[in-house]
Specification:
It is a single chain. With 371 residues, the protein is of the alpha/beta class. The chain has two domains: 15-242, 3-Layer(aba) Sandwich (Aspartate Aminotransferase, domain 2), CATH 3.40.640; 244-369, Aspartate Aminotransferase, domain 1. The chain is 39% helix and 15% strand. It has 14 helices and 14 strands. The chain has helices at residues 15-25, 33-46, 57-67, 85-92, 114-117, 137-146, 198-208, 231-242, 244-262, 290-293, 297-306, 325-331, 336-344, 356-369, and strands spanning 50-54, 75-79, 96-100, 122-125, 150-154, 162-163, 166-167, 174-178, 191-195, 268-270, 277-278, 284-288, 312-313, 345-348. Helix 4 (85-92) links the parallel strand 2 (75-79) and strand 3 (96-100). Helix 1 (15-25) runs antiparallel to helix 8, helix 2 (33-46) crosses helix 8 (231-242) and helix 9 (244-262) packs parallel to helix 14 (356-369). The longest helix is centred in the C-terminal third of the chain and has 19 residues, at 244-262. It is globular, with a radius of gyration of 21 Å.
Length: 371
Amino acid sequence: MTRIPVAAPDLSGNEERYVVEAIRSSWISSTGPFVGRFEREFAGLCGTRASIAVANGTLALHLALMTVDLRPGDEVLVPSLTYIATANAVRYCGAEPVFVDVDPHTWCMDPAKLEAAITRRTKGVIPVHLYGHPADMDAINHVAATHGLWVVEDAAEAHLARYKGRPVGGLGRIGVFSFYGNKVMTSGEGGAVTLDDRALEHRARLLRGQGVDPERRYFFPITGYNYRLTNVACAILCAQVERIGAIVERRRAIYARYRAALEGIPGIGFQPQAAWAEISPWLFCITVDAKAFGRTRDELMVLLAEQGIETRPFFRPLHRLPPFWEESRRRGEVLPVTDHLGESGLNLPTYTLMADADVERVARAIREARR
């Protein structure tokens, strides 16, 4: 039985050619023509004036938060339903993530819950475009502006998603992306910061490159970090950018096939999509209502694994994880939508080279698992 992984990269374009070109040129570190090319092209995709390539998505978050001067003792509003890197990056700055429930209609941060979570220590908001669906950025930006807060978009899972016709990554003060191996666009590891403000770009580039002054060799006006991405990784990303339209189109076709094949199965729910949203097709998401389906989400995962089908549960709610639960309990956070989705959500195999027959096999296994 052929195994169906939950994700797999598509490196069928010019990836190998460009990597060989980078190696033969001897430009294999963080300087080289593919770095600048990728930064320009990715900024174009995001509709921002600039993008800055970094070593991974978590570092992109940390760099963004340092760029907006997040400090020890500050607080940042963060959805609890997200990958732990979102909250970890806040802690790296000595600040504290304060968790906000998600909207059942988007699965992203609920703008209506922001006001109640703001305190005198709150400095900013990190909306996450969860599983490729944009957060309601106009509403979030309005609350943030009212209270003098910055907004950093976590778009790690949302390449080419659009909010009211605008690409994500340029809808807050800074945007951040991940190019991990399971993402729509990948270099294995890698990330990017996207922004329009020239002063913020200057500060971010200083911080990314050990704090070295670009005009004075070996002069360091600030304490910086080595968060740079290599020319080899950017070579892969340049090849991915060339085919990103086809990659997204194929993944959208997989989404449509899943939807048609799973429609009408009692207990199986789908990711909602707001009328103003264009989802980035990262991982196809379902929810499992144990009472209606006859099995829990975790029982279904076991049965699928026995048939060679890899799946993964939704992210564990961060307010229930050991690094954060005591502070969350002290604040009295109650996040029912997050808790429900954390218990019932499931990601199905989704990748560009996935065959239609594999989608049908996954859907058939889910249908046959119901009791």
